């Protein structure tokens, strides 16, 4: 038998066996991931979250003053909450590293060299950072390659956001000093936020900025919005 055909049959048998096992345990199969071997996540597991908050932060040994979050294959979400936390879904956990050094929490989501299939579609994976209101953030840096960036109810002195393939959403937030927001392939949407003097540029897309924001000439701006293939909307 052809070697490639044999390998394919082995993968199929492994997948069917894991699916049958999941059904026997009381449910339809969730997702089957391949990452140096088959990994099955039930529907219940897939809906859960994995807390990967650095121990230096949870124990109170470090105060968080800056965030540096990058991802290659997952959405990035920053939101307001009661306690600081870095969360991800179980399937994404093995691809994420996190550290806390001198007040900067760094989260890196690497590209996964794996595949997955399943009966139910759970959507894109997420890396979520929960920030309490009492935190005095000096800098927030977010970078993504394949996925959206969502930032809601966050206050920071400075902000940098870059995306390659995905949208950028900023809502109910405040930037006090300066920043730079750039997108290659996707929209930039800002709603109900407080921003310093800004400039905007879009090569292939529309720009809509209401009077709530200070849209000034480039030499007066301290915050810039740049887009290559997408719209810019500040409302």
Summarize the structure.
Pfam families: DUF4097. This protein has about 240 residues and is mainly β. Helix content is about 15%, strand content about 45%.
Can you give a write-up of this model?
- Strands 3-6-10-5-12-14-16-20-18 form a nine-stranded mixed beta sheet. Strands 7-8-4-11-13-15-19-17 form an eight-stranded mixed beta sheet.
- The chain has a domain at 3-43.
- It contains four helices and 20 strands.
- The protein is mainly β.
- Residues 26-46 and 114-122 have low confidence and may be disordered.
- It is flat.
Topology, element by element:
Blueprint: H1 3-24, E1 31-34, E2 38-41, H2 43-47, E3 50-51, H3 55-58, E4 66-71, E5 75-80, E6 85-88, H4 90-93, E7 96-101, E8 104-109, E9 115-118, E10 126-131, E11 137-146, E12 149-152, E13 155-165, E14 168-171, E15 174-185, E16 188-191, E17 198-202, E18 207-209, E19 223-229, E20 232-234
Parallel strand pairs: 4-8, 4-11, 5-10, 5-12, 11-13, 12-14, 13-15, 14-16, 15-19, 16-20, 17-19, 18-20
Antiparallel strand pairs: 1-2, 1-9, 3-6, 6-10, 7-8
Organism: Fructobacillus durionis
Protein name: Putative adhesin
Keywords: Signal
